[in-house]
Amino acid sequence: IQFDLRKGEIHSLLGENGAGKSTMIKILAGIHTPTEGQIFINGKEVKIEKVSDGKELGISVMHQELSLVPDMTVAENIYLGRMPSKKSGFVDDRKLEADAYKVLERLGVQDVIHVNDYPANLTVAQQQMVEIAKALSTHAKIVILDEPTASLTRRESEELYRIVDQLREEGVSIIFISHRFEDMYRLASRVTVFRDSQ
């Protein structure tokens, strides 16, 4: 596979199941280690051998199976593993909620998703917004969305399109994996089609 992603573009990735899309994404995310080949970011060769490598390079993946913790609030989910703490070592709840609010505000969803909500009280579309907020809270430069519209209504998809367009305008590079041609026509700057891992 030869694939390139430009800064501030939405690059749509299409292909049948088993074509190699998910494998490539898992390599970029550090879930799978590549056996050969090279990965370059900003012209510099990088090694992605574990999930933390991808995160440190500014790569964030929103998988089809959402990974929110049901018993934690939206704010806690956004900053899971990175919660601000007080000198005492306890979580600084006030800062946590303020920081989470800022990220939700950046997406324009602060009035419909509250920092103290729980995932079970949110629609699938709203849970996806929390996943995107989580990516933005890490200052991700590359966001990979794997079939994000598969379980969304048309109206929910339009809201997702708005947010993805906004991220692109902010200079975030996006790989948008979908089986829906509507997603590609609505969003993509460029399209790559995978077939038999090529």
Radius of gyration: 17 Å
Query: Could you tell me the strand content as a percent range?
Result: 15-25%
Question: What proportion of the residues is helical, as a percent range?
Answer: 25-40%
Structural class: alpha/beta
Mean pLDDT: 89
Low-confidence stretches: none
Largest sheet: 5 strands, parallel
Oligomerization:
single chain
Order of helices and strands: EHEEHEHHHEHEHE
Spatial order of the strands in the main sheet?
4-5-6-1-7
Distance between the termini: 5 Å
How many H/I helical runs? 7
How many E strands? Answer: 7
Q: Can I get a quick summary?
A:
The protein has about 200 residues and is α/β, with parallel strands linked by helices.
Can you tell me about this structure?
- This protein is an alpha/beta fold and 198 residues long.
- The chain has 7 helices and 7 strands.
- The protein has helices at 21-29, 51-56, 74-78, 93-107, 124-137, 154-169, 181-187, and strands at residues 10-15, 39-41, 44-46, 59-62, 142-146, 173-177, 190-194.
- The strands form 2 sheets. Strands 4-5-6-1-7 form a 5-stranded parallel β-sheet, with helices on both faces.
- The termini are close together.
- The mean pLDDT is 89.
Key terms:
single chain; 198 residues; alpha/beta; 5-stranded parallel β-sheet; two-stranded antiparallel sheet; 7 helices; 36% helix
